Amino acid sequence: MSVPAITTSVGSFYLSRSHRNRATPRFRMAVRSGAVSVTPILTNLQRDCATPLPVLRHVADSMAADMRAGLAIDGGSDLKMILSYVDSLPSGKEKGLFYALDLGGTNFRVLRVQLGGKEERVIATEFEQVSIPQDLMFGTSEQLFDFIASGLAKFAQKEGGKFELQSGRTREIGFTFSFPVKQLSIDSGILIKWTKGFAVSGTAGRDVVACLNEAMERLGLEMRVSALVNDTVGTLAGARYWDDDVMVAVILGTGTNACYVERTDAIPKQQGQVSSSGKTIINTEWGAFSNGLPLSVYDREMDAASINPGEQIFEKTISGMYLGEIVRRVLLKMAEAGDLFGKSVPQKLLSPFILRTPDLCAMQQDTSDDLQAVGSILYNVAGLEPNLSARKIVVEVCDTIVKRGGRLAGAGIVGILQKMEEDSRGLIFGKRTVVAMDGGLYENYPQYRRYLQEAVTELLGTETSRNVVIEHSKDGSGIGAALLAAANSKYAHDF
């Protein structure tokens, strides 16, 4: 029996639990020559996904090497190492009302912040989150940006209370756009390609700020984009506003990415561009990294069936969009090859992305003797009715995939820090260095967080790792984008 290819959407990954529970599981009989033990399947999976210290070292070293190659010349490695044109991070002097628009996945967020300068800092913030209809993820550029501009306009109409635009100013926006963009300036950038399940037509090769500006003009909305930033860049700026030791930012959610503060003299491809600070932020686009990753047959099958085969391999092993799907493919193999789940294969289990990462997390939190929550989730989501022995195997499968993801993410972070340390000679590991983390996967999955931290500690050693502080920066990219809009405001002289 073959696994059906993913040819349409990954929307089922986000279906609500209540919607999925209504249907009674439908079973389809599978043809078998006899019951087969699933133990070899689990053993092979654990072998293929193992992340012992030598594997982690190779990943970290390869990450650092690919960073250098990507900084030397465009196309020098899998890592695009995109210049952000953010040369000066927020100073705290910024004042006034600023907006942020954050497009990074299946939702977009709009936010406003009133800044009061050094004394008052952030006076007030408000935000709303809007779900993007699934058809717009595969629609036209104009349809998507019109929808986003409409949401922004509705949010702006509710402005009041502590939020006040100074007379004579135009509202300015920090636009967080969490897809690969070739930045042309602080307020313009060309879309390289869509990721995270998006396949919007008519945008690739266009300036995404122009796309948004045109949509706002069609609505008669008087706003201007002052800063175009990646979500990781926004997270770094938001965290750095409060803590000068922040040097790296990582997003671990539906997708993943990382950025860091780089010396401009360490960027050969910069071609003489001048930075007043001598530093800039580099958007690594590390989801495209692929060197030396431990992959299983299930990873390769999932990649081949994806909308971007051969691309974003690091993202497909460590981010929230894919962990549940890898587990589903393993469970399907077990259901077909053995009698782990009875004599039939439930129809539901054949559906790509029906098992979500939050389901994995909930199953790993089940500490009951009979793993009742595990059984309920498997029945409701996939139509499985496993006995206790089978439930334990399912939890082992979840742990194997999540452990690999967390540890590889930790190795990636160490790779970035290693590269920075080699260039700065002790200025990274020799002092407190903060990695700002955001994203639902990191925030909500305790085991994943633990595996990530363990990998960092193993690679750096106990003493050095004490100087590397990994801090959760919740929703930092939104505030960070507004702060970068303020730092690059045409009214900056008023500060």
TrEMBL record:
SUPFAM superfamilies: Actin-like ATPase domain (SSF53067). Its EC number is 2.7.1.-. Keywords: ATP-binding, Glycolysis, Kinase, Membrane, Mitochondrion, Mitochondrion outer membrane, Nucleotide-binding, Transferase. GO terms for biological process: glucose metabolic process; glycolytic process; intracellular glucose homeostasis. Residues 248-486 form the Hexokinase C-terminal domain. It is a single-pass membrane protein. Residues 43-241 form the Hexokinase N-terminal domain. One of its GO terms (cellular component) is mitochondrial outer membrane. It is found in: Mitochondrion outer membrane. Pathway: Carbohydrate metabolism; hexose metabolism; Carbohydrate degradation; glycolysis; D-glyceraldehyde 3-phosphate and glycerone phosphate from D-glucose: step 1/4. GO terms for molecular function: ATP binding; D-glucose binding; fructokinase activity; glucokinase activity. Its main location: mitochondrion. Transmembrane segments: none annotated. Belongs to the hexokinase family. This is Phosphotransferase.
